[in-house]
Specification:
Layout (H helix, E strand, L loop, with lengths): L1 H13 L5 E9 L8 E9 L4 E7 L4 E10 L2 E6 L3 E3 L3 E5 L4 E6 L9 E8 L3 E10 L5
Parallel strand pairs: 1-10
Antiparallel strand pairs: 1-2, 2-7, 2-8, 3-6, 3-9, 4-5, 4-8, 9-10
Bound molecules: copper (II) ion.
The site of copper (II) ion (CU) has 4 residues, from strand 8.
Length: about 140
Amino acid sequence: MKYLVFIASLLASGAATAEVTIADAWVRETIGAGRTSAGYARIVNTGAADRLVAVSVPAAMADVHESREQGGVMRMLPVKALEIPAKGETVLKPGGYHIMIMNGPPLKRGETVTLTFTFEKAGKITVPAKIAPITAP
Ligand SMILES: [Cu+2]
């Protein structure tokens, strides 16, 4: 019986098609009564193509956004599913893709906040994100 369970777990792990890790996660601090922030990270994929479909932050609302210039104006557009290429990476960084954090608790620099990324294939991945000064590049 133990042997069968072992085989079953081997098969289950073999079914995972994406090998996704999150690196360099950080968010911007909030100032005063500000309750809006943005988060960034590097999503590294050593497996098959995957899609980031949600991000969550404790006690806040979070969405994946893209900053894009439209007619000379920088706009932020929600991204329903962010493609993570096979054996590649997608970088969330200032001026590009980011995690929009809204209606959240104060974020104090030097502390950390937990980000949970949900991928279509890789499932949920939770990482600590450093809270950086509002002026961080
Ligand atoms: Cu945004």
